[in-house]
Amino acid sequence: MLLAYYPSAAISWVLGALNLTAFMLTGVGGLVVTAQVWLMLYVNSAVLHLGVYFWNRRHNVSPHEQEGSSGVAGMAMSAMSAPVYVQALSQALRQREPAFVVTRKGAVSGDHLGVFRRHLAWGALLVGVLVASVPLGHVHVAVSAWAVLSAVMCLFPVALLAGHHLHRPSPSGGRHLPDRGQHRPGTARHRSCGRRRTGAARGPPAGEPPMTRRVAGPLRRLRNAALVGAAVTGVVAANGPVVVDVADRLVYDFERNQQDYKQQYGFWETVELSEEYRLSAVHAALLSSGKVLLIAGSGNNAERFEAGTFRSIVWDPVTGDTKEVPTPEDLFCGGHAYLPNGNLLIAGGTRRYERLDEQVDRAAGVLSLTNEHDEPLTLPVGTTFTNGGLTYTSTEEVRLPAAHEMPDGSAMDGVADVWVEAEGTGDEYVVEEERTFGAPDLPAEHRGEVHVRGAGVTKDKQNFQGLDASYEFDVATETYRRTGRLDEARWYPTLIGLDGGRVLAVSGLDEYGRILPGDNELYDPATRTWTDQPDLFRYFPTFPALFRLADGRRVFYSGSNTGYGPAEAGRQPGIWDVSDNSWQDVHGLEDAEYNETSASFFLAPVQDQRVGIVGGGLVGDSPESTTRFNVVDLDGSVAPRYEPAPDYPSPVRYLNAVTLPDDTTLLTGGSEDYRGNEESDLHLTTIYDPETGTLDEAAPNFVGRNYHATALLLPDGRVMTMGSDPLFADAEETRTGTFDTRIEIYSPPYLFADERPAITGAPEEISRGSSFSVDVEGTEVAEARLLRPSAVTHQTDTEQRSVALDVRPASCPEGASGHTTADGGAHCPDGCCGSGTVELTVPEEEGLTPSGWYTLVVLDSDGVPSPARWVHVA
């Protein structure tokens, strides 16, 4: 142990210095462990260090302490000698004679400033990185404290030397340390490079008495016992919680792998994609091929945005095959909805990233231009505008339409907006009230006919700016197909399907980061174009949760939303009739101010027309969230109201809700605080049964899921969860969070049933209002469901729904064996199928079962579903 002590002390010092230097200068961190584990490791290390030290003292080999001392001074000297140990290790590795030798106890060597050059060098390095870490923004309390302590250990001996020289007696007043170059017998001294060193005396000088060990007295034995007791107590206190935690994990891991546990709570497993395919899965959609489309775009990463790195992948959850999909624009934070042919329509995205208050160094904002001239005008990037003698410059090209005549004969000026930035950085450029601006760069023919006004040219935070991108993701070719552009740029919009396969786009931030006041538009899949809908002008906060009701013409807004918009506008739940733009408030919602980042979903089956809302937080980055769980019945009531359901077990926001084939809803993940702050991610999963109105405990998710988390149902009945975008990586909010790219798969309890029904034959095309036959085997079929696949982002999923099908055994002509199909036997040989055939009927309301692809499952009397078959409904 003695031989290992000095090298290990040197190695520990070097590694610690490298670690803190790397973090303070670059922000790079090493292995991150919990505070509890760190404390355990630190206490164990400290106790081992002290144990080695006291053991060495028994052999009278400690170089710095006096005989019979407590050893505290010696330990302090040993700690402060770390730079010398490092130098000695370096010399030993290079097979050179060490730069120092150990003297006997009580001997004195000459001390001068040069002796401490290594201490001064290390101290300068540590102080330098401490100072540099502040402007670099790499400050962490624990790392900084370690750096300060290390610097003190380096500089304290120098301070002692300086103090000694200041207070030592004059030459005439008595003894003082030898001058540099003097050497007393029996001591060792530091020598300059290149000179041969002599070793320390192996015994006392002639005439001095030999050193003897003092027999420990009662007080000393008591002290030693106390020290041992304290060490044992410290080790137990530091290791106990960790050991208990490890034991609990081992016990839980054993329990969760037992069949009876899985049958009651289900089972989670974690999937790691190969590194080349890992991405920030902000958007997720289950395609009719059975594969999952994950869209990141720039993935909430400004550096990727500036580099033009936009990503999507297609992942097969059965085979694990993964494919990178070229992504033409930044679709990050767009909206999506399925088209009748199964393609996914994606619209909106990111035109420019936000700039926080501290990132804004000059005033910027939007100017409004009007053109009274009968010719259009294009203003290039860099066009100047003036106000009060100050100059502002446009950052983009803008086309200003000509004045024109409206159909009713009235005149209409051409209008356009342009983003400008101040020429200087002073506060005098801020314009908060509307003012008229000059435009000195206008062509002569437009002067006097183009007018510029603006307000809100400020140094405030600048929001994300929306994109007018629009694409269909082609499931067959797994490529993006360009469509006509959006009429309005949108960031954080909601897309929802309407009759005829049309898609309505609502809300979002426009191209300048302003929330749209109510401009909504429709997509026509036949022409693949968008058209503004002034007759449907209605305001919503961003990513409003919308649900198309059974009559097809009404849309329910649950109150759930994400992100942007004033707290006093657009927060009231209600029913929107898109046939005439009328509105009906829906009251009764508890904690109505806590709707942001809440989860909303249709309770199954969709024929019940009930919607649930769970959790949510206050507007903005508030740390508060709610346990609220309310349900509203929208079927037939003249004045529907929200009613309480069982409170969620914890306050929660960013909760994901997935409708399961057995009509229950899986509620998983989320966090209590904004973006998981204060390490508030919930490792909590529950299953809500709408028939009994109960919340049942399920196996807890291992991976925390907060902002940008998504979840969807897979065709085999499992649930896939992905994504999480915490703001910070620690409770102290000192380390920036990173996007979690791990996938977790949950297998609900029904997958561990002794036997599952199976569909062995079914038509691929079915029609609303018609019946069709399905061949099944296994257990008796009691129910059947059509499940529309999810297309989810930011807890917003307008697609997910479960449609109940009428089920009855098929019948055969008299004298025939087995059963027939209702369509005259088109699906069965000779019009008659075997005893494992059932007849299913699809509801005729298009609002219940919009055209598109669905997964078909049958369930037995215990609610155990079959693996799904894909069918197309028209």
Tell me the layout of helices and strands.
Elements: H1 2-26, H2 35-58, H3 72-80, H4 82-93, H5 117-136, H6 141-167, H7 218-256, H8 259-265, E1 267-271, E2 283-286, E3 292-297, H9 302-307, E4 311-315, E5 322-326, E6 335-338, E7 344-347, E8 350-352, E9 364-371, E10 377-379, E11 384-387, E12 390-394, E13 398-400, E14 404-405, E15 411-412, E16 414-422, E17 435-437, E18 450-454, E19 465-466, E20 470-474, E21 479-482, E22 494-497, E23 503-506, E24 521-524, E25 529-532, E26 546-548, E27 554-557, E28 574-577, E29 582-585, E30 599-602, E31 610-614, E32 629-633, E33 642-644, E34 656-659, E35 665-668, E36 685-689, E37 694-697, E38 710-713, E39 719-722, E40 743-747, E41 758-761, E42 765-766, E43 771-777, E44 783-788, E45 791-792, E46 801-809, E47 837-841, E48 852-859, E49 869-873
Parallel strand pairs: 42-49
Antiparallel strand pairs: 1-40, 2-3, 2-45, 3-4, 4-5, 6-7, 7-20, 8-19, 9-16, 9-18, 10-13, 11-12, 12-16, 14-15, 17-18, 20-21, 22-23, 23-24, 24-25, 26-27, 27-28, 28-29, 30-31, 31-32, 32-33, 34-35, 35-36, 36-37, 38-39, 39-40, 41-43, 43-47, 44-46, 44-48, 46-47, 48-49
Helix pairs in contact: 1-4, 1-5, 1-6, 2-7, 5-6
